[in-house]
Amino acid sequence: MSDTTKATGGTGPSHRSVEIGVAAFMALLALIGVYGGIKVGIGWGDEGPRAGFFPFYVSIIVLIACAINIIMAITASWQGKIFAEWGQLRQVMSVLLPTIIYVGLVPYIGIYVASALLIAFFMRWFGGYDWHIAVPVAAVVPILTFLMFEMWFLVPLPKGPLERFLGY
Amino acid sequence: MEDIGNLFHGFAVVIQPFNLMLMVVGIVLGVIVGVLPGLGGANGVAILLPLTFSMSPTSAIIMLSCIYWGALFGGAITSILFNIPGEPWSVATTFDGYPMAQQGKAGEALTAAFTSSFVGALFAVIVITLVAPLVANFALRFGPPEIFSVYFLAFCSFVGLSKEPPFKTVASMMLGFGLGAVGLDQMTGQLRLTFGIEPMLNGFDFLIAVIGLFGIGEILLTMEEGLSFRGKAAALNLKIVFQTWAKLPRYWLLYLRSCLIGCWMGISPAGATPASFMSYGIAKRISKNGHLFGTGQIEGVVAPETAAHAAGTSALLPMIALGVPGSPTAAVLLGGLLIWGLQPGPLLFVEQKDFVWGLIASMYMGNIVGLLVVLTCVPLFASILRIPFSVIAPVIMVFCAIGAYTVHNNTFDIVMMVVFGVAGYFMKKCNYPLAPMVLAIVLGDKAEESFRQSLLASQGSLGVFWSNALVSTIMTLGLVALFWPLIQAGWTRVRVLTGGLRAAE
Predict the structure, then answer these.
(1) ipTM value of the model?
(2) What is the pTM of this model?
(3) Which residues in chain B are contacts of A22 at CB distance < 8 A?
């Protein structure tokens, strides 16, 4: 399947640029590690190497590895290989964006209601289901989860106004 | 002898009705986890870990390890029926498994796969039973330098043995160590790398990383590829099972070889995936039907499945005996031990006999139960894959979010999960291995502690890691593993050169 999509030769960001971007991002994290390590001390203290010793040297190794990875990404011949087609990236975003909204909603409306909304949204817009199929599925999953976690295994999950209204 | 008594005691614990029930529940959940895309052994166990918080550690480990066995079994179902490997270690199973299903021999392929998995796992469990107590006993005498050298060997093996480019492995692993260092420094009690940001105080929990990297990342990848499942029907009845079983004993040598490859790769942290490929490759080269591999040979199913299961199971050996997990899933189980208040490592064999032998006994029982469950329920599990992805994906997302939240009852962890998920997507696409990163986050504190304690004792001299025969051997093995690709390339060059000289003479 994936072979045929690649053969159609759609356009998208080049693999090389993404590869460099990933390595650069890791290097950025490593720089933060170097800075944070120096801040708490990388030398020798009363209890042996100080708290920043390990993070500092680990981050230095990450920096070196990232530098090599970037050089390799620049010099390698990618032959116009793309990271993914724009259409594929749109697919990825169509999962990612609802998930981000979902995560943002959880603290306010509770995980059960948010989950029901996510599932219903997904089935309706992505799967093209009718509401009379999407709504029951979206309701059943959180209810089963509620029974399993709150009742059976006694693990409390974030709750919102609805659960408070129902007395939990 | 004492060990055998302990083992039987372990069996007595395992066959209590409650524990047997947890075992079946675990296996069924595990197979579901193994069948679904986006859920694998590691994050399946991570998500279900909170369910065990109220159980006794022994019951908890029985359920969680059974989820793991189930996931190992489940990968084969999707590989054979749908040509979609549910788990990376079942990729090699698709090569001959799916052609067999296309020829209408799905039942035979499934039986062969499950039986092989069972044989591989059983072999590995026997190895664990015999070897783990010895290793643990030996490791009781380890001081900080020896402990550090074991970590060193484990992490160097990743660099030398993985298929990914070595510098990407190094980058991902060291970043894991860095993430693991965030928060409270265990030795001095100092805060570091938190920069005054409140949620950073607790550091990065590796369970969140596992759920994000493997769970969310995998769903994003699946969305990109736009999977749709079109599978073969599975007809599995007793007649086919027995017919296949009658055929299998003639491959005993193949079984033995695959078991050995699997155990070796599992104990060194290379893991189940390379083990399955290696076993398949060697079987192809040695078998007299080798040229037919890829067209639906039963040996092509037996070889990778046996090795993958042997590796997956034996990955628990270093976890139990040394406290060094051999795979991400073993790491999650190790995280479980810490949460239940047990200290993983060689002392476990002395202080928590019930727990250790209960776990080992559950490996025997779990695989027997697992074989029965998968042989009887294949059509049921296959039907799960016929549920469209647009329904499965949000449900998996929801379960990942619940799993991430329950680790610390913190909604910020769900945010971190998504961040790790996006990171996992990019890293996977760019060929960065995720397992070393996860293991580094788990083991970072312990590795650092043993390293600093060693240096403190030696007043800062690195010579402490070569101070006696044992620690020198382990460190040197680590260096060999680290530079293995270079050594191999060098050796080939030497051979070519000397060969060239001889030809010139």
Answers:
(1) 0.89
(2) 0.84
(3) 426-427, 430, 432
